[in-house]
Specification:
heterodimer, A: 99 residues, alpha+beta, globular, B: 794 residues, alpha/beta, 6-stranded mixed β-sheet, metal-binding (chain B), transport (chain B), cell membrane (chain B), Probable inorganic carbon transporter subunit DabA (chain B), zinc (chain B)
Chain lengths: 99, 794
Amino acid sequence: MTKIEVVARTVDADAVRRQVVAAGATGYTSLPAVTGLGHHGAHEGRQLFNDRDALTLVITVVPDDRADDLIEGLRSLLEHTAGVMFVSDTYVSRPHYFR
Amino acid sequence: MTTTPAAHRSETARALRVRARADIAANVVAPYYGLDAAIAVNPVLPALGDGYAAAVSSAAPALGGRGVLGEDEFRAHLGAGRIAAAELAASIRRHRPDALGTDARLLEQFLAEHESSSAPAALEASLDPIDDLVSAWCRAALAPEAASWPVPVDRLGFYGAWRAVARRDPALPRSARGRIAELPEAADVALMRALDLLGIEDDEQLPAMRAHLAALPGWTAAIRWRSMTTGDVEVLDLLAVRVALVWALGAAPLPASRPAGPAGAALERALIWQEAFEARAHSAVLAQLTPGAQAVVAAPAAHLVFCIDPRSEGLRRHLERQGAYTTSGFAGFFGIAAAVEPLAAAESAPACPVLLTPRYQVSERPTPGSWRTAARLIDRLGTRRAVRAAIKAPDAVAGAPLGWAEVTGWMLGPSAITRSVLAGRGARAGRPDEAAAPTLFDIDSALTLGDQIDTAEVILRTMGLVENFAPLVVLVGHGTTTTNNAYRTALDCGACGGHRGAPNARIAAALLTAPAVRAGLAERGIRIPDGTIVIAGEHDTATDSLTLFDIDRLRIDHRQAVEKLGRDAAIAGRGLAAERAAELPGAPVGQGAAAAVARRAGDWAQVYPEWGLARNAALIIGPRTLSQSADLGRRVFLHSYEPQHDAEGIALETILTAPLVVAHWINAQYYFSAVDPDVFGAGSKTVHNLVGGTGVVSGPTGDLRLGLPWQSIGTRSGLHHEPLRLLVVVDAPRERIDRIIGSADVVADLVHGEWVILVRSGATPGSWERRTREGWQPYTHEGAQSAQREDDAA
């Protein structure tokens, strides 16, 4: 199994999730308001008035044979938007959920 | 990791790449939020990071519009004295530091450089056949209740339903129908195939998609919003339909190219004119401010917290003249990030800024002991809703409205005649969501006590309201009363998601009144005295009235104080009505103004119930003492900020990353609607056709209209709104502002991109300094000041 994690601006998170679904992934986990420090400075996730300017982490796990297609699509997206993608091998307790 | 060569990509990977490009191409225009909650937005918001100049030269022209007034219009302003020679000369000197000579000489040279307008003309209104077909499908698919026949969008999706209908549509040539039938069923694969068939190479796809989406910016913007909310359609679907049609009909692969925007010297001229145009309005604001002033009212009888909306500035100013009242400004949702379910409503609606996702739901319920009254009200609302549904039902059936009018005309005729002849007289302009029964908002079911205390603390600390509480604190939301107005929500509170602000004010007041919350706040260092009562109010911006809520449960002495406030607010409202009537087309001035504005609110033929936020020009972030003696003419957003209570800058960061952003959106929406009403404005209300709750089209078909109707920005004699960028005055130390600009991209984009002019007071009294990309620089409007002196002397 391959785990793909994308940290993107919340306004772009919908596009990331659409890629994941269109690639045939059976699900994803989306964590809003993640904080951190990166190329574009610190993102502190203060949300009293504005949660669209924060970052979102989208995590999905796909079978290895689907990973390349999804990575290709996400890479196209990230060529023009701020964000980072992490790809790693992983193991899951119920593999049939992820087919 | 390297990119896979195109020849070896799987079809899925290629379709995903096409999908990604569609999402990127969608950034040619901002989402359009529809009429149900008409939130202001900068139409070229995705280009924010490129800056104002780039928006003028490329982002706005990409959509077929212009981003700045034309040279002829600026020259007319110069001729009419709206731009003074000194202001224009000062602007030339700022842009051309090497320019020498007298003002007259500079102007002579500048005006001789160019004799007439270089701004691109607006596009012709007529649609090309592809645009026409795509518009018609968008209308049928996105507002199926208004379509002449059922469209299977629910079952097949936007593209799938189009393919199913189009392959049998006799309006299309037989060859086109055959080609459409050959296309794949999935939108992404179909788009990929159509692009291939049109011969659009991999590296040409993104600009091609952008051009196709820019051909109909209104529908593209509406679909962007829909994809963010209901998610039943996305920009990819729109592109699939459009590009497939282009291929099927053998049309040109790309839409006709747009006229280019000003660049080089022409862009420099436009910026010089624009700055000269802004000088006087901005200077007039700064000239009235008093940094470091002491409060006029030391011990107020009441403290009213208004929304930062510029219309509140008028009521605040008039009310403060009535006695020992002090006011402050805060985003009118009062920190309540809730979905609100009004009494008897079928569903809840987000009542918070569009930048936020509601975190909890609060329902309005009858107060204990008033169930019987509430039941009667619910019955009445249900009956009203049923009658309205019955009247509207035939609209969905072709040919039925005529017959329905024949049958029911005798019933509705007297009502129509009364509404026309009396034009708002006698009938109180009511809203169906107004509750007449004693109600409360059930905060205990929505939030745990801990969450209530947290929320209350955040509200008070962000407001800077942590000590010296007045005996009466009133949180004042706002809304507007208007009849038969598709753009009603554009006049309501933008902070409350395009709804009236009373529910938010009532929920916040309930939180700050609850004894357990006050006890929790006291443990955190915020002690609200037992003698302080917190209530909610609502400012009706069309009638200038102030309604105060939930006062029947107050002690008699408290109630007397509230009633005194109510009387003074009524006097203030009459003063404000007289001031506003002077600007409203056709309104009488003087004694009858208050009655006249109320009558206009109930008049179903009135297209100018009020001016909304037209003429907005500045945002002031600072204590009330900064502007307490000023008459800012309802042109300024006033957000309270006490720098000494915010040493870490958290409150200022909140203000600069949200209320500033929203104020800019509003400013930009008015700006673009005014500089190019044909493309960025919604046209005249008198020819609007509603497309469900989605928006309006002008006439029978065409693109969905973005922005504001002409009646929000101008009259027969020309623009009422002045398209100016926002002057932002911040009372805070330099380093604090710099730190926030350094850490928040959105603030840096606004300031560095010169979408706003951010200033703070300088080292010497009366001096100002401006933050630019290069740092802090002295900020003077010498031209505006000398022009003002000339005016005063005359």
